[in-house]
Amino acid sequence: MRHFDYARPSQTDQAVATHADRPSAYLGGGTNLLDMMKIDIMRPEQVVDINGLGLDQIERLSDGRLRIGARVSNTALAYDDRVQQDYKVLSEALLSGASRQLRNKATTAGNVMQRVRCPYFRDGYSPCNKREPGSGCAAIGGHNRSVHAVLGTSEHCIATHPSDMCVAMAAIGATVTVEGPGGPREIDFLEFHLLPGDTPHEEHALKEDELITHVTLDAPISGNRSGYLKLRDRSSYQFALASSAVIVATDGGTVRDARIALGGVGTKPWRAKEAERALIGQNVSESAFAKAAEIIFRDAQPYEHNAFKIPLGQQAVIRNLSTLTA
Question: What's the CATH number where 49 sits?
Fold first, then answer.
């Protein structure tokens, strides 16, 4: 591990100013950052510890939204009564990820900022445009089965976004509040994570000198049922091959509202708005669910080892919808 300086500010504006002083990284739970530093992928000259800033509260706003502090742990968020009652899909997604020990340390903002698990990105020497722009993408011609995408890919990167929590938040709808030298601003959650395109090293809409302070979930859909279905090689501590976060509300056997997001198949948490629109007003049926699932993968780009993710991803959506409307 390389040498680095450590700072522990007590105020948000102080943390932002300290971070801007030189190449730095914010430290919350550290479950991803410290891994990246140990394998020499991230090399901050300074680590700014934000654990003294508060930012660990969950509060209901007057408009029905739920405001989550950046430092709220995955465990605290998953077991919060308001989350379990109104956002069951989020609780299930959080509890499907990592181990209990990691969930106790991992934070909301850290999960949002989680780096990809592509082995070519993490090995430190293979060509990787995300790690070293312009060097190439070893995954496209190499082994690309489990943590590589079929949606949102480009000729420069096909790594999947690894978070379960973010898939649920994409389905719910959320706003990311950030603080920078110019003051606070808000970013729509669906616009926070970026497609790789020609610049896969640019992973999010957060500016270099900004700090995530909160994530605010949209107010819940009335009368909804929701769930997270994660399909993986083994039943614990494994990243998704395909997952679906589904929120659905029905009236008399007809779909009134639907939200669908997928993980394990996209280069970012994948919201399927066209499929949602196709479902609304349809009778609850497997044929309607299958049509929606087909729409999601209509423009999918499979690679040598991950073509199975297309039917698997479709099944993740159909099964989830069928269970929630049974």
Answer: 3.30.43.10
Residue 5 placed within a domain: yes
Here the tokens at position 134 are 């312009």
**Is residue 295, in this structure, part of any structural domain at all?**
yes
Site of tokens 């950052």: 33
How far apart (Å, rounded) are the C-alpha atoms in residues 259 and 246? Answer: 6
Instruction: Please state, in angstroms and rounded to a whole number, the distance separating the CA atoms of residues 118 and 130.
Output: 10
Give residue-wise pLDDT tens across range 103-161: 999 999 999 999 999 999 999 999 999 999 999 999 999 999 999 999 999 999 999 99
3-state secondary structure labels for all residues of 96-164: CCCCHHHHHHCEHHHHHCCCCCCHHHHCCCCCECCCCCCCCEHHHHCCCCCCECCECCECCECECCCCC
Answering whether pTM is above 0.70, one says yes
Which residues form the domain of 35?
1-53
| Residue 302 in domain | yes
Q: Using CA atoms, how far apart are residues 272 and 260, in angstroms rounded to an integer?
A: 6
Alpha-carbon dihedral 158, 142, 306, 147, rounded to 10 degrees: -50
